[in-house]
Amino acid sequence: MNMLLTKARSGLLMGVAASALVLTSVAAHSETIRWARVGDALTLDPHSQNEGPTHTLNHHIYETLVGRDIDGSLTARLATEWEISEEDDSVWIFRIREGVTFHDGTPMTAEDVVFSLDRARTPPSGMAALHAAVEDVTAEDDHTVHVRMSGPAPLYVQNLTNTFIMSKAWAEENGVEVAPDFAAGEEAYSVRNTNGTGPYRLVERDPEVRTVLERFDDHWDDTPEVTEIIYTPISEAATRVAALLSGEVDIVQDVPVQDIARLEQTDGVIVSRGPENRNIFFSYDMTSDSLASSDAEGNPFATPEVREAMSLAIDRNAIRQVVMRGESQPSAAPLPPFVNGWTEEMDAFSDPDLDRARGLMEEAGYGDGFTVQLDCPNDRYLNDEAICQALVGMMAQIGITVDLNSQTRSLHFPLIENWETDFYLLGWGVPTFDSQYVFDFLVHTREGSYGSFNGSRYSNPELDEKIQALATMTELEERDALIAEIWEEVMEEHIFLNVHNQVLAYAMRDGINLDVHPENQPHMTTITFD
Amino acid sequence: MTDFTPETRPNIFLRAWDSDIAYSFRRSPLAIVAAVVSLIIIFAAIFAPWLAPHDPFNPASLNLMDGFTPPMEPNAFTGNVYWLGTDDQGRDIFSTILYGARISLFVGFMAVLFAMALGITLGLIAGYRGGWVDSVLMRVADVQLTFPSILLALLIFGVARGFIPPAYREAMAIWVLIVAIGLAEWVQYARVVRGATMVEKNKEYVQAARVIGAHPTKILVRHILPNVMGPVLVIATIGLALAIIAEATLSFLGVGVPPTQPSLGTLIRIGQGFLFSGEWWILLFPALTLLALALSVNLLGDWLRDALNPRLR
Amino acid sequence: MLAFILRRLVQSVIVMLTVALVAFALFRFVGDPIASMVGQETTLAERAEIRQALGLNDPFPVQFWTFLSRAVQGDFGISYRLQQPVMELILSRLPATLELALISGIMAFLFGVGFGVYTALRRGNWLSGSIMTVSLIGVSLPTFLIGVLLIWVFAVELQWLPSFGRGETVYIGDWWRTGLLTPSGRASLILPAITLGLYQMTLIMRLVRAEMLEVLRTDYIKFARARGLSNRAVHFGHALKNTLVPVITITGLQMGSIIAFSIITETVFQWPGVGALFINSVRFVDVPVMAAYLMLIALVFVVINLVVDLLYYAVDPRLRVDRASARS
User: Which of A390, B214, B311, C218 is the most buried (most CB within 10 A)?
Assistant: First the structure.
């Protein structure tokens, strides 16, 4: 942590010096970036929605206390330092950056931070779940904020990378002290108006059509090279790629995997790619007595042999090679490599062994196979439907007849939520970059805030206890050991039939340099031009 | 339409094949070509299991590594060669087109039959009974028109999902599609039949039949229906092309047959994603097949319209 | 006359109510809005709370009544997705759709009538045969494919026209944003208008041709010829004039389905109209927007129907309400 802090501080100094120098050259050198992706931010309110594209756009207008670098590490943004209090290990202390101003010219203080964190953790804010363990937030002085947790919470700071700081005075003036409520029946001022501290100011907002941002010259950090951002959502993949090829946009996010190779060969277009913090896996109902969509006697997925046979029948390399056109990282564990708890061994998988898989099916008493329905989203992950289709063929090799039910996300996810699916595809990102997040939502028995995406109905009280213990452990080595222990059990049980880790690609006009962000949140401030 | 004696009226099959039409068919090279093309496609679709070299609907027979094989070239991994190449799942495009055309045609024919049955029945009733029955039915038709067919199909799909148990959804998807497309098209038939019925019912021969106590159903089926079969046939032919295209459009919106059993439309929707990536064959061949099918059916419809119009003979 | 109008108005209201009822009844099957509204960390209990707060757990009649009583006042609530008032959202998107529909309608009408007249007069000649056949391509390929192919050829390969969006727009008055007054706005309109209009053009062309052929056979035209009028006068002064009445009627009635069909075109071209708004709302299960959109479509249809009925009534009282033959 200390190293990071020094880095951030020197960055600040350099930023001040640089901005003084740059000021003169700015006028001559103005760069507009026309940026297209599949969907728009749902709102510009900083706390209303916990959703990727919304955060991505808002990161340009608002800022968070801590940021996420492209290698997954934390960076100092509006907080210059953060630590757990020495007197009380359930208190987090944040030192707030000095000399930061909002776009309306008012200075940002600890009061604004307290207000923002309170707003973010109060329903109907979409960010509330990430701050559930917060008891209260107080300003000790103009530039120190204390956050008291209900118990030791060593990972809390990881939850802050998408919680934006807004101006208290501005919010009060415009009647948006709490995040917008859908049931309220009227539009909140903060949905289309902003006042952040970020590197860009909002100039024009036409939802789903065009959003224009221009550089905020009083920003505290290094002056970015991009002076203007024109953000246009284009929902059709072919049209999006066409817009880049015809030179109507400069950067395209959400590039279809099949177009990557071709775009790379196109003159004047380059592609930047990197791993995403998101895994794609299948899971199944392991505990019910029988399956609603199956003709099988009993529940085949309850039999460990069947689950093992399935993991021997899936050909991850073929999916990578053909369905993903080489653009994925096949792995056996549902955990991206950035995340704490990941080891190389967990990723390892063997080549398909159909003979052994068939033998296991025989052993389990399902030698003649069985039928089951696979539920799959068709508009959520990269080539989700094609991955499911490929699995149908692979399962057919060991006698499992899979009926594919692929549908839109708003129909797919409730099936997992309501336990109405026997066999499903799910993608999972780990915004906290720690295994506990995976266990909390996918492995722990479904109760209270735990296990809401545990569609396997897996329930192991012993494991639950260990998972709960993780939350308050401050001794990191001990904690990592426990994480490894839990993973061993999870992998042993074959709760997940993991496919791969997604790889992201951004295509752009030649001459632009932009790296892929693991959470698919590219920052236009990081762009440089050749 | 000059023959008013019910007993000697030839049945509709004979009417359809009467010499005037056969003559007009012989005189129209376009109609002959269209008929030949549609017959070839229909024939190929019906006999797909015997004609196709592979069974693309059997997932166990697919090898994913065969995916993206260009036409007439060996696959880089497996060395297999396919006439028209393979798609993203390693399915032989030629076989998939035959099987896909089978699905498209089945959906098309069934949707037309459904729309026809519904439209003709309601049209006859509305036209014959008149009065409030007519008013209500025609208002229903207005409401139906108010609901654009695409929206209607989307919503019917949603409802079906709510009612059909998960295990049957995949099998039922095709029937839901048929109902959705058929339901969007019945109004046309109803309007034509109703109009004709209103004209015919006051003619002497119908009055006569009524006087001798013939049952209304019998009058409708024996006397009125044959008179409207011409225009109905024209609507049905065009409707077949429309239904096949509607199925393709719906697949674009994400509703339709399961991707493991693609129709021509689904194949085009999938192929469209490869337009810029260089795998042109995945889009081109299914699109050409659909174009050939829909175009020839439409041309037949056109020809039929002119041929059945007595004033244009 | 008054009684007729009243009856028609009552019927229109019933139609609107039915559409609202059917639409509303079906929404519950489209998906769960909550799934798209909250982040993955939200607990099941919190999801249930939001569902309750939105009134999604209320009995159906209660939900419907709430919806209706608000809708009558023009209040359709706020969008679950974009958090804006639905009415404002739809009104801001409507000009884009109307301009697209209008331009493609005009194009379809002009080309449709032109080709229709030509193919009717030159029946059997090779050019009219080709026009008839080629025009059928427009109805023999799905709209989305035609759109994508146009983008590929004219935007990517030739780079003549924009591939997406509306180009630069300017305001006329307070809320009507038009692309017709800027060069980039007009250029952006071309490809979507062709895509949307192709189907209508084919339809109109066929109709004009059929009507012309009918009219040309009538005694009235024969008399005109017998009177020694030139071909030109007969064709355009007499035949076409008689043909246009039903053609205009049907084109008018088609306006509604153009708006509906614009869903596909707008999605392909990222055209910021109500159709694209609707389809995005379906994906997100944004019930307030879906409901308002369907009511809007219903309203457009009802108004068009009403106007057509009144025109018929004014032109020919004998026709009364029966205009089935003109429609089919």
Answer: A390
